[in-house]
Amino acid sequence: MVTITNLHKQFGNLKVLNGLNLQITEAGIIAILGPNGSGKTTLIKSILGMVLPQQGEIKVIDSKVHKRYGYRQKIDYLPQIANFPSNLKVKELIEMVKDLRGQSTRDKELIQLFKLEPYLDKKLGKLSGGSRQKVNLVLCFMFDSPLIILDEPTSGLDPVSLIRLRELIQQEKVKGKTILITSHIMSFVEEISDRIIFLLEGKIYFKGTVNDLKTVTGEPNFEHAIANILTSNHA
Amino acid sequence: MLKILKYSFYDLSRSRWSYVYFFFYLLLGVVLLFLNNDLSNAVITLMNVIIILVPLISTIFGVMYFYNSREFTELLLALPVSRNSIFLGQYFGLAISLSTSLILGLGLPFIAYGVLQSGAIWDFASLLISGVFLSLIFTALALNIALSNENKIKGFGLAILLWLFMAIVYDGLFLVALVYFQDYPLDKFSLITIMLNPIDLSRILILLKLDISALLGYTGAVFKDFFGTALGTIISFSVLICWVILPVWRIKYISEKKDF
């Protein structure tokens, strides 16, 4: 699904990705974890072609990423910050994204799921942060792409929407899709992910299941296991 | 690209600022035409306003728009759309929206005044054409600044400096050069210097359409000799078109290489 070989990215003097190799072949939910500044978002943005790496190659479903854009048709992406043109109405934004991607969609169902009907005629600038995140989620999930990338999907959501989001992610998994998630909420990651990838200093430090991580670190608690990796490396 | 253009234009056409800009020109046009009976005077006053204001609004509004729509740009970048269509679409959306405010804002009072039947139609047309060119040029320069500077304050500062230089400092330097080298033949030098600044070029192109160009004296004759001919007009417009194409090409170039 995604093949990354020897990826290097540097912003000025700051090395963010340092020879990262990653192969994601199987379907399922994969969490990308790591401390702040470990390169999670840079990795995701490189896959999307928004960040251009200095060195290395990325392939998404047999298509090279560099200087191409057609392959993004097969990716659903949820950005971290949901900020939209404030003069557009929710309905118009959804129509616009549909227009730009040109695929059959299930937007109605998702609007119902997140209870967005009363907001459809409101301008995006007038929405609260949580409602905007819901619009963001609708935009992401309304296409049926084999690869889904979620950058901090839980931010700003109320508990009811959080439960719905979890169900939604599980449904997509059952359809055999690959889902990449970054999140700082460890309980969410532990509950939902099949496998985790732990980034440290621009490389993959650990790859495996949550249980593998607990065994390796000898910590029965997931949050402590993560903390263990960080302290044993940075102590 | 056309889809992005459409949505950018649509977004802007609802912005309060587009209407403020439109009503400003409408008011200015109405006041100048109907409270003052001399059409030529009205065109000159409008020219002075357009020459200064269009570049200022285009640069400031342009920089502001691109900084504000950064998250939206990121949303578009994750969709199967090429970078070219995103940035050129946004550029043309903004430039067309600003030009529309100008054309409609000044056009309506002029039509109401009956300019279509009068001989002044060409004065008026050259006014609008220059205004549209200035909008296209300075929006493109604004986008260049916004794309090259992550820091908004720096971007705004550069945008204002750019405007200040083109609209005021350039003329000052030009004048100093003319006084300093007054013992030398300066007609070629002045022609080239004027050609290199789109604001000066537009001013001369409008002035030469008006009767008052006779008042320019000998210098005016040199200009009339050059800009009045077909060749001069072609060269002037080619320079204006270059002023549009070069910044637009650079937008394309930077946007291909930029990280978001």
Automatic annotation (TrEMBL), chain A:
GO MF terms held by the record: ATP binding; ATP hydrolysis activity
Pfam families referenced in this protein's UniProt entry, alphabetically: ABC_tran (PF00005)
InterPro entries: AAA+_ATPase (IPR003593), ABC_transporter-like_ATP-bd (IPR003439), ABC_Transporter_VariousFunc (IPR051782), P-loop_NTPase (IPR027417)
Domain ABC transporter per the UniProt entry, residue ranges: 2-226
Alphabetical keyword list: ATP-binding, Nucleotide-binding, Transport
Domain of life assignment: Bacteria
SMART domains: AAA
Designated name of the protein: ABC transporter ATP-binding protein
Organism of this sequence: Zunongwangia pacifica
Automatic annotation (TrEMBL), chain B:
Record keywords: Membrane, Transmembrane, Transmembrane helix
TM annotation in the entry: 20-36, 42-67, 88-112, 124-146, 158-181, 226-249
Superkingdom to which the source organism belongs: Bacteria
Name listed for the protein in its UniProt record: ABC transporter permease
Native organism: Zunongwangia pacifica
